[in-house]
């Protein structure tokens, strides 16, 4: 059994979000199984719903200790003295308490390696796949510049409801981030507070009978929730997305988290890259855990 007290950060937020942060090893299926069995108590009351929490709530989770282990072994796709590419699982933040980054820092400390582990970009909690880390300050500064100059391609696979009319397209719109609601909004025309976004997709395969498609999506700008919100805006929500998708569609396909995976990183340097010049032209593709 694990016991927690809800802090102000999670006031008025869902139980699932809190549990994922406190117990990074727990999976979505395990969380819902625990709810069904009423093995979670909130203020000593057994619950079976993903309720809203409040600051000061007492949470008790009754799960076998083997599932609550703090041991962490990263799924390393590539590593050298300057960079690290990790296959991120669903259900864990990139930064923050009990995050992927903190786990990596502790992992490298335990192996007596003195690297400065820093993420070069972000993925949403339930987006899986490749994430690039720098292992020293020089590499970090270079990679941040490369992302800013669009010298690193980020490709995702997304399972969306429906089949786009165009096989490939570059979408342009405007995005507004509402920090209070942790939501973004998309507009086809400029508005105050909205920033331009650009999202490119290509249909990899589709199923007419089941009415879904698998898209390769390339981020040409990298804004919060951009892929999820932009695809939903044009009428093709990502299946499993509880925030920008549709619950009835998610239930139909049996997915409780967005079917979105960062599956390819490609280095296209057209300016000097210093200690990272050796990466130019290389691409890393995730061939497992794909949608």
Give a summary of the structure in a few sentences.
The chain has 291 residues and is an alpha+beta fold. Helix content is 19%, strand content 31%.
| Form type | globular
Query: What is the H/E string?
Result: EHHEEEEEHEEHEEEEEHHEE
Low-confidence stretches: none
| CATH 4th-level superfamily of the domain at 155-262 | Pseudouridine synthase
Q: What is the average per-residue confidence, as pLDDT, rounded to a whole number?
A: 91
Largest sheet: 11 strands, mixed
Top CATH class of the domain at 155-262: Alpha Beta
How much of the sequence lies in strands comes to 25-35%
Distance between the termini: 34 Å
Tally the beta strands: 15
Helix-strand makeup class: alpha+beta
- Named CATH topology of the domain at 155-262: Pseudouridine synthase
Number of helices: 6
What is the helical fraction, as a range of percent? 10-25%
Named at the architecture level, the CATH assignment of the domain at 155-262 is 2-Layer Sandwich
Radius of gyration over C-alpha positions, nearest whole angstrom:
20 Å
